[in-house]
Structure formats: structure tokens, C-alpha cells
Amino acid sequence: LLFPVSNLCGKCRPRDTDLLQPSLNFLYWSLHQTAPCSQQRAVAVLLSNVSLLELLQKVLECTWLWSPPSRPAYLSSEDALLCSGWLLVASLLLYQHRYNTEVHQTLSVDLTEVLNAVIFRNKKPILLLVSIMQFLRAVLRQNFSSSLLVIVGQNTAPSATLPQQSSLQDTALHPLAMQQVFSLVVSLQNLLVHKDLLLSQAVVACLETLVEYLYVKNQDVALHVASQPWHRFLLFTLLSGGQKSFLQPEVLRLMTLFVRYQSSNIISQKEISQIVQEAAEANLAELPEATSCALHLFLSQV
């Protein structure tokens, strides 16, 4: 089925949302659900279809064209198509890298537009934000060096008017700039305050990947980002309200991040002891799977 469905997608226009959206969802599902022995073949089938990749290029570009100020808060058919497009491209990046699959057609993405979509949001629906963050995670994990992707609109050579330290940091973090990094971190923190489960999971995962990327590029910058005092206020905000327990997946994953990068000003021995105490008193068999996994990672890191 991959052959006819991918060929059908290649004959469509981005405005053919009724046909394209379920078709892209089918391709995405096929990549993730096929047996491991067939997954490499599935990736090769999709990456060899030039017309499909050209269609995906147009869909991604529509993200910036279909963003009027009066955009509704609900998920329109156009936004649903954009979600499917970003998720499929993120998956293709992941599996192309895993299997080192031959690329017949590259995709071009404006890095500044992607970052601004998360930083400024502009009333984009939550699911679209999550989809774009999945893509951002994929390119961060591959150090912006995928053979499937061409990054444009990136940070160019540092300006002579910048302080020398900022110039050196921008060079080390290329294609990101320090200003973009801090803007992104603040925006991710603000999105966490919404306390939407799907959004929280995507935000924490994106923050984890970003700090990992920074640590490889410049350890001082990564540790500086991970130890920002605002993170502690963020934790108090997440723990406020009806559910004060530390045993929330996004809280546990944030705590794990701060322990990993030794941010003692954000998480103290007292908080670590509270989490261990709550875990000892909880019925572990009744914890949701996401909480169990996050708790396991936290205790392993400690």
C-alpha cells in the first residue's frame, strides 16, 4: 500500500486536505507500526518518491502562509494537514539517519521560521506546536546535519558589533545563536505553565534535547541554561493547584534534567528526598506508564 498511497500524495496539491491528511497519516503510521524487518524498506520506498517529498516541501511552507491573525484556536483541516506533514518529516529524518537511507530529494526548512513558531506561537493550535517541536527535536538530535534536510535562515557569521564572548558562543552553537536559545527556553517554560498533558510532554522532551545539543556544543552554555533561576519558579508553578505531587511525568523529567546537569540551585537534596518518599508511599502498580517511566529515569539518574 505504501506505493499507491505515496504516489497518490505526490499527485496532490496542499489544498487537497481531505485526501492528503489521512494519506500522510497512513504513511506516518506505516513507518512507526511496521515490523522492524520491513521498516528499512518502508523508509526507502518513501524517500525514493521525489513527488512525495516535493509535496511535503510545499506542505511545510504552507505553515507560514496559512497563519492569518484571525486563525481559529481549534484545529482546522489545514492545520491538521500541517501537523501530519511535520510529524511525517520528523519521522523520515529519524529513520533516514538510523538506516542511512539514500536520499533522492532534499527538503529545505527555514530555521528562523521554525524557532519563531515556538517562540511567538501566534495562536497556533497546540497539536501543531507539538508537531513542529517534534521536528525541532529531530534536527537537534542530528546536529542539523541530516542529508535529507537543508537548513536555511540560520545564524550567519557573528557580527563585529557583538561582544567577543557572545560572538564566540554563537560560533560554537551554530546554526543557533545565544539569543535564539534563550528565547526558545523562555517560550518552552511559558508553554509548560499551560499544564496541557500533550503539550507538556512535547515541551519537556524538546527542552531535554536542546540542553543535550548545547552540552555537546558548549558545556558552559548548557550548564548556564540548565541552572537558570526561572526553572525553580517554573517547578513551583507546576506543583501548584490541585495536584501537588512530585509524581507527575513532566515534573519528574524536569527534575531528572536538573539532576543530570547538576543544577543544585534548582533542585535541592530536600526535593530529591521528597520524590523518593512519595515514590516509597505510592502504589507503583497503579501509576500511569508515563509516570513509571519518568520515575525510573529520575531514580537511575540520582
From TrEMBL:
InterPro entries with a match to the protein in the record: Immune_Signaling-Apoptosis_Reg (IPR052133)
Write out the GO biological process terms: meiosis I
Q: What domain of life?
A: Eukaryota
Name assigned to this protein: MEI1 protein
What is the species of this protein? Edolisoma coerulescens
Instruction: State the taxonomy lineage.
Output: Eukaryota, Metazoa, Chordata, Craniata, Vertebrata
